[in-house]
Design goal:
Layout lengths: L1 H7 L3 E5 L3 H5 L18 H9 L3 H13 L10 H33 L2 E6 L2 E6 L8 E5 L7 E7 L5 E5 L1 H4 L4 E5 L2 H4 L5 H6 L3 E5 L10 E5 L2 E5 L4 E2 L4 E3 L3 E8 L5 H4 L10 H34 L5 H4 L8 H15 L7 H19 L13 E2 L13 E4 L6 E12 L2 E3 L2 E2 L5 E2 L26 H7 L3 H12 L4 E4 L5 E4 L3 H12 L2 E6 L3 E6 L2 E11 L7 E7 L5 E7 L1 H4 L8 H16 L3 E10 L1 H15 L5 H12 L4 E12 L3 H10 L3 E5 L4 H10 L9 E5 L4 H16 L1 H4 L8 H14 L4 E6 H7 L2 H13 L2 E5 L3 H15 L3 E5 L5 H6 L2 E5 L6 H5 L2 E3 L4 H39 L12 H11 L1 H10 L5 H6 L5 H4 L6 H26 L13 H18 L6 H21 L2 H6 L9 H5 L3 H28 L3 H11 L31 H7 L16 E3 L5 H8 ...
Parallel strand pairs: 15-29, 15-33, 29-32, 30-31, 31-32, 33-34, 34-35
Antiparallel strand pairs: 1-8, 2-3, 2-4, 4-13, 5-11, 5-13, 6-7, 6-12, 8-9, 9-10, 14-35, 16-17, 16-28, 18-19, 20-21, 22-23, 23-24, 24-25, 24-36, 25-26, 26-27, 27-28
Helix pairs in contact: 3-5, 4-5, 5-13, 10-12, 13-31, 13-33, 15-16, 19-20, 21-31, 23-27, 27-28, 31-33, 31-36, 33-38, 36-37, 36-41, 37-38, 37-41
């Protein structure tokens, strides 16, 4: 408690290296993490407190206390305490098991080992023992233990490469660098041990992209920023070793600050039951008051006449006090309207549904042997009510594997499959990929199915050569050879890796680079290009260029970038090719591929020298430096000659498009929350069919200030709602009125809209005065994409929708950066992906592939909701019917709180006689098959609208139960009135009356089943048989002889149930109870059938016909032009390359960098020519555009 206060007041942090004693006085948190909720001491009090937050548990505890008072209790106390203890124990064991696994996960992380510098020696230390100020050594592919200040590394200029997948979902490598003053420390343990720098920095916070601090050392101060910090959760890549100083540890690290708290989740049905239990208790109080008043009146007017016989003294029993005691007695008797077995049954049903999910073979991923897992058993029916899905992109929708799929070179598409007649066909398993075996350095995992590109290369197509040469030269990839002598590429973005690998396989192999040269092996010949300038990529330019001098001495500019930008820079002579390439790009984008346009320019030597001089002058400026450089880049990147375009596939996970289409048909809105770039996220939106060209508008919010964001939202709302609607901006509207207004507006909006918003704009939009505008606009859009968002922002968006729309939400992700939104949503789903198990450990449900989500929701979720609702309706009905008979009997027994049934029947009714039929209904009942649930996603709608169990349905169940109780009581009562049995004896005794009513009730309850299976038959007829077995046993002479006081109904069953008139009464009562319901259901299905009724009828009439499957929209779009540009590149790599700070020291290049060097006496292209047949005749018939 003290520590949390201390931390909340922390304004800035002061950390001294290698001085634990100094740092301990600030009481900084250690590196131990806790995601568990309980420990040994706190488990019992906290868990009991949580359980008694359920109104029903508190209600049963209150009843138990009442039953312990002998003056008012006509039922024994064990009928309540045994089931209450059972329910609380079962729930506690389940909670303890869940928390045990959290403890196990925490211990696994806390006990990881890191090398820590202690007493001038490197020692293996557990993560939980690492302290603020410690010097930690990391090695390649190791996880970072805490937030570190990078001191030195094995790389030149103390650079290091990190993968931040657990923080932002990106697998792109990012660069961090140490200060030059600390990089001198190197790996010298003695110097590192003597390092005593003091860091003063910001307090712990959740901002992943910002850090501010100052390092004081050797009488000088050095400013620190985010580029010097390595965060916990990152993985060190392509760096042999590095040393860092711990700044934030454990709960103070930015990863944990973004994780969010573990929340106690309850379903909407649980919350509704809390309300209903209060209503039922109020109803019981009303019944108790009526019966208590009746008792007081009866005692006053009739009871006096019995006092003589009962030897009571005059005035000994007050009629008002008698009524008071009777009130509490009836509260106890009538409490079976909500028996505790309701909650036991609900837990059993949920457990059964969870096992169905675990056992579902169609959700089992054989590729990695991962089954689906329900990690909680309390939320199953909520899966049938989801309205909003919040999904991560990388690793959830996509595999984050980039594949070079197609390209357009000089107006001709390569990458399509053609038949023998030259006609385009679809890809099949029979298609043979291009054989790259003649290229000894080809990447064996690369596959390309269009053989014509290889033929063009073989025929010496100059445009194809220039195209592939550009891919091999214009990039930021670094190369190295592994121990086996194989060429390995270190890529900063997977897009570049795909392009360079494609060029490599087609014979243009990027070999190595220095700050001044790039070496490429072109079709077996080693070529060294002089790198004259590197025009780096950024989000405004959306392109990158290199200027090189080739071995012939020609200067060329090679450029790749977004087609929308690059096409504006082309020479006018490219018009014909531009039109063709534009059509090709539209086709690529329509297939969901990420595209880049490719162009080059020949430069004059003199012109380049003048331009380069101006660039050097601009670099030397202090003011307006960036603007001058950008202007010079614009100047030289013009009059470009178009070569073509590339199309790279960001491979979607299997079945993503079908899943999203089906979920959309179920009226589930899908929002993508990703840490990736805007262009990449939009492109994946199109690839998944969440964004389509048919949409009326896609609103892009990218303002950098609160004013800009507010203005952009206002304009978007004007487009969407019209001028009148947006005039209410800034005014406070009552929540209920707002929701009603939104529902009206939602109906009037025609067409589909989408919203795209980035992280820094979202930060402003989440402020209180803009929040309503954001959520109002977003909820009217079919698709929302939030890009460049932090883990905490993901959680804030989920909370916003939860609080504003009161909708049931589901969050799905696969990395640590998704944990906070998984915890915030009503349902959290973790995917066992490439980014570790953090998301799975924090989730409620987990599986291996996004496509299983549709089965989880449309089948298991819908069934769970349908079954639970039907169970609750039936349970309340049967208990109202069972309990209210006591109310009617009260008017005929002097309001004496006499029970109408045998006490053992009351104790066993819910536990034995009717538990199995109701459980069979709750676990196995289904309206349509699982395949029909998938084929007709519209069946999911009743759950979203909460149609199957609500307050209205509860009152219908209540009315049904009251009607059945009237029939159960008054038909036997009327039949027994002044009637003699077959033997001439009177049968209208209390015990015979009780047995007749009880038997009728058990039969009526058992018969109400619509889905008959073997299990249902066994449970239903087994329960009826059990009832009669127990009845005859308890009414036998033998058990009466052993327990005469406990079983007073001796011989009654045998006497009553052997008479025909009793069975006729039972039959009449059963028919009168069941027939109105059967008639009503028949007419309802016939006159007002629901969709599930229609599907059932269709299946019965057309058993052999195929079901009509929902067709997903075509992924090919050619109606309108849009850019498929998406590039996961980051700014800054060009400067690193040209400065040489990321280059290792290597042997110097040849004396003349402009020489051609023969790589082999016989090039592999010659081998290819010998190996393949000549196809000149067929190739020459193809039309190409000549410039």
């Amino acid at each position: 408690m003290f520590c949390s206060k201390k931390k909340s007041l922390e304004v800035e942090r002061t950390v001294k290296a290698n001085d634990r004693e100094y740092n301990e006085k600030f009481q900084y948190a250690d590196n131990r993490i806790h995601t568990s909720k309980y420990n040994v001491l706190t488990f019992l009090p906290i868990n009991l407190f949580e359980q008694f937050q359920r109104v029903a548990n508190a209600y049963f505890l209150f009843l138990l206390i009442l039953q312990l008072i002998p003056e008012i209790s006509s039922l024994t106390w064990f009928t309540t305490i045994v089931p209450l203890v059972l329910v609380i124990t079962m729930t506690a064991v389940k909670d303890a098991t869940d928390d045990y696994f959290r403890h196990k996960s925490d211990n696994q992380v806390n006990n990881r080992l890191s090398e820590v510098l202690i007493n001038s020696k490197l020692q293996n230390e557990k993560w939980m023992n690492v302290k603020v100020g410690d010097i930690v050594k990391l090695e390649n592919n190791q996880f970072v233990a805490a937030d570190l200040l990078l001191l030195s590394s094995s790389e030149p200029h103390s650079l290091c490469y990190i993968e931040t997948a657990e923080l932002d979902g990106e697998t792109n490598l990012k660069v961090r660098h140490a200060l030059s003053v600390t990089s001198e420390l190197g790996a010298d343990i003695n110097r590192l041990a003597k390092f005593d720098g003091i860091v003063v920095c910001e307090a712990p916070n959740n901002k992943l992209d910002k850090f501010m601090g100052v390092l004081s050392w050797k009488d000088s101060k050095h400013s620190l920023n985010n580029e010097n910090i390595i965060l916990r959760g990152c993985i060190l890549r392509n760096t042999s070793w590095c040393f860092g100083m711990v700044i934030f540890a454990g709960p103070d690290t930015k990863l944990i600050q973004n994780s969010g708290k573990t929340k106690f989740k309850r379903t909407s049905i649980d919350r509704l039951l809390n309300t209903l239990v209060l209503w039922i208790f109020g109803f019981l109080v009303c019944l108790g008051i009526i019966l208590a008043i009746g008792n007081s009146i009866w005692e006053n007017q009739v009871g006096d006449q019995f006092r003589t016989f009962l030897f009571w003294k005059e005035g000994e029993k007050n009629s008002v006090f008698s009524g008071f005691l009777t009130f509490w007695s009836y509260i106890i008797i009538l409490n079976t309207v909500v028996p505790i077995s309701l909650y036991v049954s609900m837990e059993v049903i949920r457990l059964g549904h969870s096992y169905f999910i675990n056992w579902d073979r169609r959700m089992y991923y054989s590729g990695k042997s991962i089954p689906a897992e329900a990690r909680t058993t309390t939320l199953n029916e909520e899966l049938g009510q989801i309205e909003y899905i919040f999904s991560d992109k990388t690793g959830t929708l996509t595999q984050n594997i980039m594949t070079f799929k197609k390209c357009s070179i000089n107006g001709k598409i390569y990458g399509e499959v053609h038949d023998d007649m030259g006609q385009k066909t679809h890809m099949t398993k029979k298609n043979e990929p291009v054989d790259f075996s003649v290229n000894p350095q080809a990447d064996r995992t690369f596959q390309f199915f269009d053989h014509r590109l290889m033929e063009s290369i073989k025929l010496g197509d100059s445009k194809a050569y220039e195209f592939l040469r550009l891919l091999a030269l214009c990039h930021t990839v670094m190369s190295e050879e592994n121990s086996a002598g194989q060429l390995i590429y270190q890529v900063q973005s997977p897009d570049e890796g795909a392009l360079v690998t494609a060029a490599r396989n087609f014979g243009f192999i990027f070999k190595s680079r220095t700050p001044e040269t790039i070496t490429v092996e072109e079709l077996g010949t080693l070529m060294t290009y002089q790198l004259l300038a590197f025009l780096d990529f950024n989000n405004i330019r959306k392109r990158m260029s290199v200027i090189v001098r080739n071995p012939e001495g020609q200067i060329k500019l090679y450029c790749k970038g977004a087609d929308t930008i690059l096409f504006e820079k082309l020479h006018p002579s490219n018009e014909d090719l531009l039109n063709l390439t534009t059509d090709h790009l539209s086709e690529f984008a329509g297939e969901g591929l990420r595209t880049l346009a490719i162009a080059y320019r020949d430069l004059d030597d003199k012109y380049f020298k003048e331009w380069h001089k101006m660039l050097e002058d601009a670099n030397a400026l202090m003011d307006e430096r960036d603007e001058r450089i950008a202007g010079l880049y614009e100047e030289i990147e013009r009059d470009l000659m178009l070569l073509g375009a590339t199309a790279v596939e960001d491979k979607l996970q299997e079945g993503v498009i079908e899943t999203i289409t089906n979920l959309s048909l179920a009226d589930i809105k899908i929002w993508v929350l990703t840490g990736d770039k805007q262009e990449t996220a939009i492109n994946i939106g199109y690839a998944c069919n969440m964004l389509t060209d048919d949409m009326k508008d896609v609103f892009i919010i990218s303002g950098n200030t609160a004013v800009e964001v507010r203005e952009e939202l206002r304009k978007a709302k004007e487009n969407l709602f019209g001028q009148n609607r947006s005039s209410s901006n800034g005014h406070v509207v009552f929540e209920k009125q707002q929701l009603e207004l939104d529902s009206v507006v939602e109906e009037t909006i025609t067409g589909d809209y989408a919203l795209v918003i980035n992280g820094h704009s979202l930060a402003h939009a989440l402020e209180s005065d803009v929040k309503n505008d954001l959520i109002e606009l977003a909820c009217m859009c079919k698709t929302v994409v939030c890009c460049r968002v932090t883990p905490l922002q993901k959680a804030q968006v989920v909370e916003l929708v939860k609080n504003y729309r009161h909708a049931v939400t589901l969050a799905i992700g696969d990395g640590a950066n998704d944990v906070s939104m998984i915890k915030s949503a009503h349902i959290g789903v973790g995917i066992s992906g490439q980014e570790g198990l953090q998301a799975v450990l924090a989730s409620d449900y987990s599986f291996a592939q996004f496509r299983y989500l549709q089965r989880l929701l449309l089948v298991h979720g819908r069934w769970s909701y349908f079954r639970m609702c039907k169970f609750l309706r039936y349970f309340f009905y049967k208990n109202f019917a069972f309990t209210l008979v006591h109310f009617w009997f009260g008017f005929f027994c002097g309001f004496s709180a006499q029970t109408v049934y045998d006490q053992w029947f009351i104790a066993l009714f819910n536990i034995v006689y009717t538990s199995l039929p109701v459980l069979a209904m709750g676990i196995f009942d289904q309206d349509v098959s699982d395949q029909s649930s998938m084929d007709y996603p519209q069946l999911y709608e009743p759950g979203q609208l909460n149609l199957l169990f609500n307050k209205h349905k509860f009152f219908i169940c209540m009315a049904h139960g009251i009607y059945t109780s009237l029939v159960l009581f008054f038909i036997p009562y009327g039949a027994f009135y002044n009637v003699a049995g077959e033997d001439g004896q009177l049968i209208a005794d209390y015990q015979s009356f009780a047995v007749t009513m009880a038997t009728s009730l058990v039969i009526v309850i058992a018969l109400d089943t619509s889905y008959w299976t073997v299990i249902n038959h066994v449970f239903i007829w087994g329960s009826v048989a059990t009832y009669f077995s127990v009845l005859f046993t308890m009414h036998s002479n033998g058990i009466f002889g052993i327990f005469p006081n406990q079983f007073p109904f001796v011989g009654n069953a045998r006497h009553s149930l052997t008479q025909k008139c009793i069975w006729l009464v039972i039959l009449l009562t059963t028919v009168a109870s069941v027939m109105p319901v059967v008639v009503f259901r028949f007419l309802k299905v016939d006159l007002f059938p629901t969709l599930s009724d229609q599907i059932r009828q269709r299946q019965k009439s057309q058993k052999k016909a195929r079901p009509l499957r929902s067709q997903r929209p075509q992924t090919r779009r050619s109606s309108s032009r849009r850019s498929g540009y998406a590039f996961a590149h980051q700014e800054g790599y060009g400067e690193l390359i040209t400065s040489g700070r990321n280059m290792r020291a290597k042997n110097p290049p040849p004396a003349s960098g402009l020489e051609k060097t023969l790589y082999n006496s016989t090039s592999w292209i010659e081998n290819l020519c010998k190996k393949t047949t000549d196809t000149v005749s067929s190739f020459s018939q193809d039309k190409t555009v000549k410039l």
